[in-house]
Amino acid sequence: MPIRPPDRLIARLLVAGVLLGSLASCARRGACTGDYCGTVVIAAAGEPDILLPPVTELSTSRDVYDQLFLKLADLGMSGNTIGDEDFQPQLAERWEWDGPVTLVFHLDPRARWQDGRAVTAGDVVFTYDAYTDSLVNSPFRSSLRLISAVTARDSLTAVFRFRQRYPEMFYDAVYQMRILPAHLLRTIPRDQWRSAPFGRAPVGDGPYRFVAWKAGESLELAADSTFYLGRPHIRRVIVRFTPNLQVVTTQLVAGEADVTEQLGSPDNVKRACAAPQLACYPYKGAAYGYLGFNLATPGDSTKPHPLFGDRELRRALVMAVDRTRLLRNVFGDFAKVPPGPISQLAWIWDPETRELPHDSAQAARLLTRLGWIDSDSDGVRDRAGQKLAFRILVPTTSASRRLYARLLQEQFRTIGAEVQLDEVDLGLFSERARTGRFDAVLYTWNTDPTPSSSIPQTWTQAGLGRSNHGRYVNPAFDRLADRAVGAMNHAEARRLWRTAIEVLNQDAPAIFLFAPDAVAAAHRRITDVTIRPDSWLALLRTWRIPGDRLTDRDRAER
Amino acid sequence: MSAWIVRRLAAAIAIVLAAVTLTFFLLHLAGGSPCGQRDVQSVAPEVCARLRAQFGLDRPIWEQYGKYLWAVLHGDLGQSFWQRRPVIAALGDAMPNTLVLAGTALLIDFTLGLALGVYQAARARRFGDIALGNAALFVNSMPTFWLGLVLLLVFGQWLHLVPVGGTHDPVLCARLDSLHCVGDRLWHLALPALTLGLVGAAATARYQRAAMLEVIAQDFVRTARAKGLRERRVLLVHALRNALLPSITLFGLAFPFLVTGAVLVEWVFAWPGMGWLAVMAIGQRDYPVVTATALVASGMVTVGNLLADVVYAAADPRIRVRGA
Question: What's the gap in Å between the CA of B178 and the closest CA on chain A?
Fold first, then answer.
């Protein structure tokens, strides 16, 4: 005789489910009302490593510690890094030039560390010393190399002395350094800063104070109601860690997160922007991507690459690629073809910059003229027994670059070049790129607001052994870049950069493929959302949720 | 029996050591460095070189291995390159989440699996049995992460019945200090545990059905029925108790399988457990964390196996005699 189906069990499970659901949906109500309430959940693709500014270069760390630590002054919305006129006061209420190479900052006397101590010029001196200390080993150390000394004139006056006069002195003095509390960090040995407990529970002087960090899950900040530059409107900020942008988008669409910096792929953008509760905020992206040719033999930088050592061959390959079509395929309307090695964020972005045209017929003719013909009718050109074949190094972690690699493979095939793909994980990818073990590499750089650091690091003689993995060197380009870096006015710098990039484009050391737009998303109940492209959360303290739009979650107490 | 256990224990230690050694060398031979995984231009080569020296990565690999083993023997799993804190602290945060997930999944696996197996055996070759058998086969043949994505899409995104990720609501339940927050945690656990448990339950049901059918055909079951016992009692008390032996073995093996199998589920559901930690650490070339997760996972697998063997040997002396 068969047993009776477990009706009772099913019924019990259903009741348990309903009870569980009721428990979970029964929210705790808080009492906060008015203009300074509101809780924002930021979905981040990744997790900070540490919250001590000099020892981390992760953007997820920076987004958080920028709410905790102040700079002396910060970049304005224009993004202009030349001179000081477009910078906004932060810790320094004002500054003046005391001669051509001396910059004097006057600290705001109202500034306080969150443990109550006053912020002093001694903290500024301590911070500079830490950033430039080899024991701290800060990734930002090189950006301070032209500052010779920082001293305290009195408790509220810090004096910066530079080695020479140049256009971005002010930018160098303020942009990378977040002022640190000397009284809390002085006792920690500098070589232990990277693992100091302070970095996981910091005390700052910014608009928000650190509350808690649950590894792998979330991090919480609370508004400092006494912040001297104005109390932040959003009371609680929770950064929720997720593994990737797809999960970020899912959490936003499902209403489990309120804000994100970047949605990433066009699919994610469409999904998020279609959600009725979300508003999308496009802004200039800080990245550009390219197919870089290795001009040296892989593994032996003293010899030219058997293919890419030839400038004319590189030019033919550049002309063979329809960059606009590739871009549409991969990014849709959410990226632009860069006119050179620059992101949209760079103020030297100029669509009029001269580039090699897309002309596959001319590319084919050029290859034939160079002696590359398909002598054995196998579809691949060859010359003196050598096939026109090479490999593209691409990271498995980037869906867009993997797609690009396949599309490039196909475009090169049509002109008789055979391409194999080396898809490797990001760690190995970066190491192979850095050590020159590749033919061509699909690279993406995230750049600073200034071209003066990113371009020389990647495309000049000075970048060899640093980020110039393709070993491109043209003294004419180097000279132009030097002049552009040293140009004292904006228009002249812009003109010189354009000329320099045109020289580089003619040499074809790379095919500049994409400069993505960044698209942030935020819940519609959040107003006054202003995003500064170089640091999307820089103005978070001015965002707000009007009283009539507050939800129970906004009012909830911790 | 005790000599047998000691021998199995020694074998288990050797297996864990082999797993850790293999992980250590494979990871180092795979290339990459903890400094080289970021597409930013600010990390100068000299900064990387100093970091490598600080982490001891500039030393010969045998020296690194020797130092690592020595430290592990002294209970020191090292410092995470990426999280900038002791590995033991990172594991301490991740492990409870994985144990909760795998434990719940195991509960679902065996509760549902045994129930379905018994139900199918009782209705062998009838519609219910065939339908459930096919459904179980379908679920069992699905990759766990894919099932997770489907459940996430349907119940999380379309129907909004359950949360789409994480272990709790960070706004309302930052601390586990109320009944509401206990419910919230269980609600967040539901979908990942179900994903992991369903696949296991499908397999368990098939094992249990086969074992039950074998037992049901035996004389003592017929005798029980002849005595006039109710069919439910015959099945659940007499037959099931004797058909549980294969499930005991399965139980011992399932837990470590669930722990390691949770990797992709944790990734899909943004569940910050050991799997998530391992995947992030591999990407960051955080050697100490990866090796430690391998140590813990292989430890769990071998201990699980060992426990299954011990329980099985205790239940069936023939195993012990053969193994002696």
Answer: 9
